Amino acid sequence: KQWYQRRVAITAGDTAFTWGTGTASFADCIGPIIEVCSEEGMNGTCHVYYDDNLWINTTVRSVNVIRGEFDLFEKTNLRARFDTLSEEDGPHNVAELETIGALESFAPVLNDVFCSLDKGWKFHGSVRTQSKSGKACINWRKTPLAHKAEPNHYCQNPDGTNLQAKPFCYISETETEECDIPACVWDMACFTGVGVHYRGSTRTTDHGRNCQNWNRDWPHIHGYHSPKYSWAGVGDHTNCRNPDYEGKPWCYTTNLLHRWEYCAIPRCSRDDFEFYKF
What phi and psi values does residue 23 have, to the nearest 5 degrees? Predict the structure, then answer.
């Protein structure tokens, strides 16, 4: 793949989260972009980032997500309470955000925004309006899936009962083509944070024990059944998940003497895992 190359005067970490052809303009960049300013109303001294920032060494009073989504944290190193803002939300004064009272660190939301998990059935990124072969996508309102898709030109995979292999679009009212949306590696081959978003297929614990099906109560009775906990990825499978926000992905085991254990899944790091896989 070709990464975005930094050619303009900006404040940023590195090019890790972006993908697409090289460009000299943020307007052509496919990747998360955020702007923060020292005064309300996006005034004062402003800085633009396209990566995470674990410690903002200046006071931030207003923020605008230009591309994608970002989690905004009240403390440094992505700690404490947070709010999530997307490009659709527009500029905000920090004092008016719902949860946080200050902004000291932030990180882009990648999964299902810039890459797809689980065949992309929740993918909602506004990054592709053409098919893999370069044909223009028509608005989903003119397609047979108008009742399920968002009414726009972006690649989606909206038919939850008949999913295609990855996000696609209609290039005519009857013809579809796959889109060039990469598959997520993070939260598939490894986990981030405490693993709430992990959707990989590991089904053994740190001690080598097999995992129990989440929809069953044998050998261990529990309350984490789908669809109530479908947001955490639990369902009719034995893959490790984390529906209680504790530690890292785990599962109930098939061993009567061992109720649950953490799973043998590595933590994501830039040194060991790429972000996307085409």
Answer: -150, 155
Residue 142, classified by CB atoms within 10 Å of its CB into exposed (0-12), middle (13-18) or buried (19+), is exposed
pLDDT at position 26 is 55
- CA pair distance 68, 113, nearest whole angstrom: 6
In angstroms, the CA 46 to CA 74 distance is: 19
Say how many residues make up the chain: 278
Distance, in Å, from the CA atom of 83 to the CA atom of 109, rounded to the nearest integer, reads: 12
Q: What are residue 20's DSSP bridge partners?
A: none
Cα first-last separation, the chain: 8
Task: Tell me if 5 sits within 8 A of 22, measured CB to CB.
Answer: yes
pLDDT digits (tens, 9 = 90+) for 119-171: 898 899 988 899 999 999 999 999 999 999 999 999 999 987 788 989 999 99
Sheet holding 79-86, edge to edge: 79-86, 69-75, 105-109
Whole-angstrom distance, CA of residue 253 vs CA of residue 239: 11
Q: Within 13 Å and on the Cβ side, how many CA atoms surround 149?
A: 25
pLDDT tens digits along 49-80: 888 888 998 999 999 999 899 999 999 988 88
Mean pLDDT of 199-219: 97
The pTM for the full model equals 0.75
